[in-house]
Amino acid sequence: MTRYSAWSVFKNGLSGHKNWGRAWRDPEPKTEYDVVIVGAGLHGLATAYYLAKNHGVKNIAVVEKGWLGGGNAGRNTTIVRSNYMMPGNRDFYEHSLELWENLSHDLNYNVMFSQRSHISLLHTPAARDGAARRYNTMRLTGTDAEIWDLDTLKREVPHLNYNSARFPIMGAAVQRRAGSARHDAVAWGYARGADQHGVDIIQNCEVTGVTREGGKVTSLETSRGTIKAGKVGFAVAGNSSRLWSMAGLGKLPIETHKLQAFVSEPLKPLLDQVVVFGVGGAHFYISQSDKGGMVFGGDLDWYKSYAQRGNLPIVQDVAECATSIMPCLGRVRLLRHWSGVMDMSMDGAPFICKTPVDNLYLNAGWNYGGFKASPASGWHFADLIANDRAGRKIEHFNLQRFERGVNIDERGAGPDPKLHG
Ligand SMILES: Cc1cc2nc3c(=O)[nH]c(=O)nc-3n(C[C@H](O)[C@H](O)[C@H](O)COP(=O)(O)OP(=O)(O)OC[C@H]3O[C@@H](n4cnc5c(N)ncnc54)[C@H](O)[C@@H]3O)c2cc1C
Questions:
Q1: Which of 73, 187, 250, 279 could form a disulfide bond with 123, CB atoms 3.0-4.6 angstroms apart?
Q2: For a pocket test of ligand 1, which of 65, 120, 220, 371 has the largest count of ligand atoms closer than 8 A to its C-beta?
Q3: pLDDT tens readout for residues 122-164
């Protein structure tokens, strides 16, 4: 496998770039693996990578019903941040941001992580007080955080609607180390890294059944035959409840909803940061991709579905938010929009946990915030699978928290579960 470097680009340039090796193999499934991860999204691929790299597990497969990175991994708006306040969330997301900061080097793959700042606009004194509490907690616990007044915001982001916005802008809560990354590159980087460690990534291999004997999962039925497994990890995002019921486990505290994303025609540099607007029922976030397209999104589609396409009222809603906060976008043409299926948990926090079945592990409940979490999610899910116990940073992310009433209600930084019940 070629190690990517300036030298390898130069050398391959001499032969017209015809001799690059494959980034990962396309293996036939074996009959048996020590660990099978279901789902080649970011969380599944990252888990396989860290299982092999950090824990030395040798015989791993990732099975994927479509192509790797074709789910939410390749459909999201790529915002990476760690502006969380609640115990349970804050350590975990900060660990993830730290992993992002070295990810391109670790994977020897440019994931185009750009720490361009995440700016949440503030529109009321109450919002400013709430943000001050959250951002001060972040500073006290070792994360970077700033509150900007209006003059600073105008200097840094000049194109916002400062004159006639329905909800006047008063300032912003900012995390400078936050930003965005190239989603496909992250999936490809983890896939290549996992493959280099011997992981079989098996695409077009849908899990259609889960066989259990003596309190354990013994094998998976797939569209490419039966695969025996020592341990199984589910990392299928919006399809989690389907896999859960295949394993005969009843209902998960997860609903599947759709979230759309939008990209405009390419523009010259217009917006350097990620900007978030949320007040009075509006929810909108926007950044500019390296190719120049304005990438933006808003709220869920507000009905449950497994379909990866969205409805038109949300298009209108998002367009209204865009033009109200950045009126200059009114003349920009929309190039594409699409949707992904979100695994919405009832408190907005994820599950990285053991299940009632001994050798079955669950990674789910990422809502619309799982892109930023993928490095830490893979890291800690791998640790859980390898050692059969939850490490400190994920001990809160279990299924029992609703029974015990210790849910992680991160109002203001995560998805708002009360709105999608
Ligand atoms: C429009 C949109 C915008 C978003 N914006 C952001 C953002 O800005 N920042 C952020 O942090 N997060 C964001 N997210 C959320 C983030 O993308 C997801 O939380 C995260 O990608 C989910 O994890 P994943 O990558 O493993 O999921 P996926 O990529 O969906 O991976 C799951 C995989 O499982 C496979 N699968 C399902 N069923 C089976 C089966 N039976 N057999 C085999 N394989 C199966 C699927 O094909 C899929 O490839 C956004 C999501 C969407 C849709």
A1: 279
A2: 371
A3: 999 999 999 999 999 999 999 999 999 999 999 999 999 999 8
